[in-house]
Each structure stands twice: as C-alpha cells, then as structure tokens.
Structures
1.
Amino acid sequence: MATITPPRVSAAGGEAGRALLAIVPLLATLAALYWGFFYLRDLQSPDAATPPPQILVVLLAIVWGVGGMALLFTTANFFVEQLPPAIMQRLQPLIFVGPAILMLVWALALPTVRTFLLSLYDEGSLNFVGLRNYFGVFTDPAMLTVFRNNLLWMIFGTAFTVSLGLLIAVLADRSRFETLAKALIFMPMAISFVGAGVIWNFMYAVKPADAPQIGLLNSIAVAFGGQPQAWTAFFTPWNNFFLIIIVIWLQTGYSMVLFSAAIKGISTEVLEAARVDGATELQVFFQVMIPMILGTIITVSTTIIIFTLKIFDVVIVMTGGQYDTSVIATEFYRQYFTYNNNGYGSAIAIVLFIAVIPVMAYNLRQFAQREVF
Amino acid sequence: MYADKPLNKFLGSLTVNGGLALICLLWTIPTIGLLISSFRDRIDINTTGWWTVFPHQDWVAIEQIKPGPEVDRSGPMTLAGVTRTFEEFSQGITTDDGRRLKWIGNRRVGYLEVQEYRWTSNTQTTLENYRQVLAGDDYTATLKDGSTVTERGDNMGRAFLNSLAVAIPSTVIPISLAAFAAYGFAWMKFPARKMLFALVVALLVVPLQIALVPILRDYVSLELNGTFLAVWLAHTGFGLPLATYLLYNYISELPRDILESAFIDGASHFTIFTRLILPLSVPALASFAIFQFLWVWNDYLVALIFIGASPTSQLLTQRLAEIVGSRGQDWHLLTAGAFITMILPLIVFFSLQRFFVRGMLAGSVKG
C-alpha cells in the first residue's frame, strides 16, 4: 500500500483568521442544505396547497442532493486546507474517508447489532425473551415450509441457471451469431423483478376452460388437450417451480457471460490435443472444459445461491407469499410489517444473515481473485 | 468417411445454431408477448392471445345478419337459409360450403355471424393503454361497443419522474462517497486505516433486509420517512461497501508516479483526486454507476419500506406492483405499465452494453 505525504508549506501568519473565514462557506452550505431539505419536503408533501409541477420538484431534488453533496465535499475540504499543515494532515483523511464510514456504520454496522437486539425481545420490543423467537422460527410449521421453499430455490434455481448458462456459452462460442444471442439472453438482467413478475404473470395467465386462453402456457396446455391451470396459485408445491423459472430467466445471462469468458480463456491447443487423442466432443466438454472452468462454476453457483437465499420481489409480486410459496425474505416482511411482530421478524432477518455469511465469505474470496473492471 | 466431413460439419453447425436460436426464441418470447400486448386494445388482450397478431388460420366474420324483432328467438329460426334453434346457432353451424354460422351475444340483442375459415391476423393497435397508465387524472376509455368507462389513471408519468429523482442521487452520492473513501484508503496515511478498510469488506456480507427496520425507526423519529432523502441515504448505505471495495481495487492500482509528480508540483489531495484520479477512473466509475443506477431503478423493497404508500412520491416499481395487487386482470394496464418501467433500463442496456455487462458482473455480489 502506498501513501504520499504532501510537502509541508511553511506556516504563515494570520492562519487562525484564514481558517475562521474559510469555515464560512462550509457553514453556509450546511445551512442551505438544511433549509433546502424542509423546502423540498413541503413541496413533496401530498397536502401542499398548490402542488408545483412534479418535474420541477424532481429537478430541484436532484440538484439539491447531488449538488449539495459536491458542495459539502468542496467547502469542507477548502476549510481544512486553510488550517495549519499539521492539523490539515490529520483532518483531511477524515473528509475523504469519514462520510463513507459514517454512512456504513449508520446504515449497516449498527443496524445489524440493533436487529439482533430486537430479535431477543417480544413483538412490542418491550420484554426480553432471550432466544424464544429463534425457537419459534425453527419449530413453526409455516417456517419449515419457508425453509423448504428456499431450499428449492437454492437447488433448482442454481442448478438450472448454471447448466443453462454453460450450455448457451458453449453453443454461442461455436456460432456466428454469438454477439446477438448473448445480448438477447443477457437482456432480462436489465428488467426489474416487478416487471419480470408481470411478464411471467402474463405468460401464466389463466382463463376459464370454455374461454380462449390469453396466457401462452395455458394456451399450449389446452392445445395439447390439458386443462387450464393457475400455475402459481393452487398448484402446490409445483407453483414454486413456476416462480423459480422467472429467476432462471433473469439470471442465466449473468452465468452465461462469466462462462463465456472462462471458455475463451481455455487454450485451443489443449482442446485440440484432446480431440487428436480421439476424445469425442462430449468427452472434451466433461473431461477437459469442465475441470478447467471449475473456479467459474463455483463463483457463479455461490452468487446464485446468495441471490436465491435473499429472493423477495419475485415472490411478493407473483403470489404475495400465499399458496405455500413464502420464502425467508417475504416471511420477514410479513411478520414485521404486516403483523408488527418485531421480535419474530428480526429473528428471521438474523437467520437470513447467518445463512448468507458462509456462502458470501466464500464468494468474496473468489471475487477478490478476479479482475473486475 | 472423408466424404461425410462437409455433411458432418453442416449438421454440427445446424445443431449449434438451431439450438441457440431455439433458446434465444424461448428467452425473448415473454418480453415480446408483453410488448405486443401493451399496444393491443383492452378487449382484444382479454379475449385473444397476443400471438394472434401474427398471421394464422381462424374463423373470420364476413357478414352479420341481424334478425328483425318479428323473428321468434325461442323456437327454430331460419337465417341465411338454415333453420336451427338459438342454442344450436350459439354452438356454431358448419354449412356445406365450408362456412360457419354462429350466434354472437345473447338471445335478445345478439346477431348471427357468417364466418369463413381463412388466414387472418389481429393487427389493430392502440396507444390508449399507455395514455391511461401514464395519466394521473380520471381517464375515460371508450369500449368496443361504444360505452365508456371512467377509471383513475395510474399516474405512472409522475412515478417515472420520482424514480429519476430517486435513482440519480442514489447513484451519484454513494459513488462519490466511495471514490473519496477509496482514494483515502489507497493514498492517505491515517490511524486505523487497515481496520476501517476491513470493516468495509466485512459489511459486504450484510444483507440489506437486516438493516431495514433500524433505519426505518431512525427515519420515523427524524420524520424523514417518505422523502427522497430517506431513500437516497438508504441506497447510499447499502451501495457503499461494494462501491468502496471495487473503486479501492481500481484506484490503488493506478500508477504511483503520476501522483508523485503531481504532489511535487504542489497539488493538494483534493486537486489530485478531482483532476487526476476521477478522470483516470472513468471506466470503473461508469460501470459501477450503471449497475447502481439500474439496481436502484429496479429496486422495490427499499422503496416499499421508506416511501411506502405516499401517493405523490411513489416510484415506478411500486405503482406497477400496486396494479398487480389491485387489478391483476387488467392486462392492458399491466403490460403498458411494465413496459414503462423497462424502457429506460433497456435503452441503457442496448446503448452501453459493454459498461452494462461489466457493471452487472461487478455488482453481482451486492448485499
């Protein structure tokens, strides 16, 4: 790690006065931001007497937020640079690193501790109950369904995302339409889960048996002589799989891109040597390629496992967690925000956290070894 | 054996390209179905599949016969030279010349349609769905039979602006904070530097679900809930570990001698950072900015909790989820609404594909 010490400037007279003057812009910025916040909040409030055009509010908000931050950094730094060099050198790192650390501690470090403490209290956060919420989480039959569902997500979501991504990467590598094909497969990564939920709700749409089907899946089912089905509703436990399909559709692009890069990294000589030795294409794939890209397979798998552990939006939009499709994150939301069961909800969040840690730690180790940008 | 080689090669390429084309088709069909449907009339969407816009064979009406009031509809009727009861006509009668006679509508005001089986396509399109979903006021739609319905517009136009107001600062603020911090960690000397950086890396594993409740409590006591600032700060906090970590990796790898010569010229840390480091880091900044922007734009959970039900501040994903919840069968609104939420990400995707892919890969470990 390299650090650089700026050359010392000889201390000049009147430093105290300069510093005193330099604090004025900083204080003015703080005051302006403070005032701007209340001004904006009144504009945004739904009971404003004469609501201004929304585009104006939005522009003001963006200018206030982005400009305010830039101004704060600039004026704070200006103030520090006017201080005597010895003090400046102590304070300047605080301006560079301080805001990020402050935000991290407030938004992530402290909340982890606070949520853990909440999980030790009852629903109203008044009485200490020890680990009772955790016993509840692991014995409640509804929670057991939730854990089963997350397990289904983890196993099938990961297996299909990885194998489909690998298959497409291999096919695309040999095709002349590689760029186009990869773009089409990757495109769903741009779509929100709520949007994807609507897309697939429409694919799964169901009409009464005597009406024409407008959902593609039911229309195919009827064309082959089947009965129209509400795929994501009363079709337990298979409805979970129809939700998992959505995430496979969204995430395969990610695994495909990583696999594609890994496959291109294998030297063609190795593959040619195997072929000359009489290996069939399947043997080349399973016995040469797969071992050589094992690292990437592990990276992709762990990423998708974390992703499926934390899955929320797709389930909440498609079924709201009904029909036995609830997962940890939706159950947390329901317990905490629908039933106001603070202790139990927090315990579920902590369980999710603990489930994620080992996979995430492993994933980060892999991630650190990889060139990202 | 050698004679087979060109054939084998051809078959191999056919399998590869055919298989790939099939997968690509499967992958794009859901989106195409949505896009096509969003331009179809509300009645059409609900009565025929979106794939009927493509040429296909079906019964097409070529003539309507409206029997006069004198025709007794409770007994056999003679229409178009065929005598049948109402029930039989309702089932559809196939005549000898290959036509079909079908009663449309109810017994009293219905009519008989003479249909022919031939190639057809439902190509009628409309922009009404978009108008209604974007509008904020009451919206009056004219149905096919001439009657009108007045429904509340879904105000997605406003939600689109709100999403911009949330997504732009929620991208710029965390990246700026992270860039400053990354520079500090890489090129400044201060106590506990290693420990603080370890904290940043450790916080990468924290899923944001765990932080929602405590932050919400702070917002409630500070009366920040429902404001844009609340969402910016939350996204800043949640995005910072990854942003700091990635930018640190990039900034600490920049060549050391460039910075040293700048210091010798008397430049301050702040000048070096804004004039030298930021321009040099544009590829990393752009990739991460695209990831963070799309993440915030597509986010539903954070908006749901910190903006909540406030009708003036709701974001696109919230509006769309609300239509799903309250009017899940109004496909004309859902398809158009979903496409409105997708349009900006899709533009970013197709215009900045290289940065987009890099950003998505880098962001894949986000908590």
2.
Amino acid sequence: MTLLVNASQITGLPVVTVYGGDDVAEVRDVVYSPGAGRLVGLTLNKRGFLAGRRREVLPAEAIHAIGRDAVMVSDESSLVLPEDAPDDVAHPDADRNVVGDDVLTEGGVSLGTVRDLALLVGGTGEVVGYQIDKPGGGQGYIPLPAQLAVSGSALVVPDITEEFVRDDLVGLGAAVDEFRARLGLR
Amino acid sequence: MDAVQVLVLVLALLLLAIAAFVVIQRRRRAGGVIATRDKR
Amino acid sequence: MSDSFRQCAGRKVVSRTSAQALGTVTHLLVDAPGRQVAAVIVGKGKKARLVDWSALSGFGPDAVMVGDDSALRPPADDRELDGANGKLELVGKRVLTERGNELGSLADVSFDPATGALETLRVGDREIPADTLLGSGSYAVIVDDSQEAQAQPA
C-alpha cells in the first residue's frame, strides 16, 4: 500500500501498543533528517486534551509502523528517555528547521518554500517529497532524491525537479518513481 | 462594590485563569515537523 | 453453536449446586495471545467478581453455570481491575491493524461456549477471523496486517 500523507498529519496521532492495545502517548513533533533522508523519531505528549509533555521520545528504529490513524509500537518500552535516545531525536533543533526554507533548483529557479513533508505510511515513514508554498500562491509537492545535502538557508534540488511539481499527494506518489529513474540516468 | 459585583469579578477572573491555562497547555502540546539542517 | 459477547451480556450466572443466581455477566475478559475468553466478569463496580474460564461448569445460552459461589473471586491485579471496570471491554473498541490503520469499531465477538475460544470479530459488515487478533487493551483492538487491504481510506 503506497499511501502518502503530510508529516503534519502524524502529529497528534495516538501511539498504540500492538500487543497491549493501549494508547501510551501522543505524537508531538515529527523529527526528520533531510541529510540522511529519513525520519529520526517522534517527540511525545501524554494522552489527554490538557495533559502535558511526555519526557520519553520514540526513535524511528523503535517504531513498529506509522499508519493513518495511529503510530504503532510493540510495547511501552519502545518509548525511551531522552538520555537513552540519539541526540537528534532527544533534542531536535527547531531553529535550523528546513520547514520555511526556500527551494532552489541548481539552475537558480525558486520553486517555493518548504511547508511540510510527504511521507509513506505503513512502514516507518520514508520521506519521499516536500509540500511547498508556491511562489505564485497555492501549494504543491515536489519529489526528493534519496539523499539531499541541506545546509545554509535554502534547499538546492536537481533542475529536473521543476518538471515534477505536482498538485497533490496522489500526483506526487505517481511522480516519485519516474523522478528517481530520471535522476539515476543522469 | 456590592457582593454581586464582587462575585461576578471573581468568576470572570476564574474563567480568565482557566482560559489562560488551557491556552498555555495547548501551546506546550503543539507539535510540528522538525527537519533539521546539517551543521556546517 | 456459537455464542457472542453482545448476546451473553446480562446473562444470569447460576450456582450449579444451590441453583441460586449469583449475578449477571457484565463483561468477558480476553486473553488476546491465546485468542480465548480468560474470565467472566459478574456484577459491577466494587462488587464485581471474576470467574476464570477453567472454573466454569458450563456456558449455556440461558445461564452461565458455576460450581458454587466460591468460583467467584475479586480482581487480583490492575489488569483484572480494569477488566472489572469495563475498561477492557472489546465491544465498541476501535479496531486498528498493526500498520496503524483503522478498520472500524468492534461490533461483536463470537466465541465457542464449550471451549472459550474466540471465533470471529465483527467490524462493520465484515467478519474477521479471531486468529488475526494480536492484542487488545484499554484503547483499541489490534489485528495483524492480513486485514490491511480492507482498511478504509481517510
């Protein structure tokens, strides 16, 4: 099942144990490493409308699956204290967030600014593209190469990305394979 | 001020405090997408 | 003949030796890995008692028979306490696949009254075999991803 969702739709989802059937936490932040091209983990809140933050975090390796309606873990021991988790999940740096950065092609064309990430549900959330706010207004989606070096204040993407701007997640899903194939042949 | 006015004031302050608590707590819980750039 | 959780709610629990009514069935506590009814919960609130499946004389369509009232015992741990309070009741719970997608609400659970073995889970208009059950608890019932193809899109 290749269903794509915006990463922001994962926030607020319950974290549920597969073998216990209990909602042990709720997703607060979705932490992603653009350089490594993968989800690094989730920070958590306690369950309940006014409940506070939860100290424990959920590293990507400990996630059983990310679905449309819940994030699944084997049991509550999958949630670890920040001191026992990789630093990029335990202390995600919101100041150097790619969200909000400009997206520029290598040739210098601005495709817009990063609004959200598009990730695959069912597995452990591979990020296949970004949602962008387009220069002329409105939103679109661009596919990503498997890895992308990101530093400075702008994202630099291959020129052919310009041909692969799509209107919605369905369009993005259809475009990813062709985009990656074209990059491979370059 | 008479007793009724005092009561109304106290209730208003209480509601304000509750509203403030709700806003603060919801903000603490607000999450988002954090995609951290590499250090240079 | 199958029985179901919905059908047996409210059924009399009777002592085989004294023919006295000891209470009514309020919930069935499930052993998910074993796909089995673990215990019958009789009565509500502080007076709720458990009867382990192995302590039953018989689970009939009109009454649940126990040897005598010594078969009824108070909850022994937190999980049994939650069961007695109805927090672990399967009927009405959200059904999630292990991939994190919702299938619907659990409408009913059918089981074999002779052995206590769970047979099917009814979700919406579908019957799911109980051997897909992975876990159940206070929030949801979890089934394996063999049910994935039927998950409804958001």
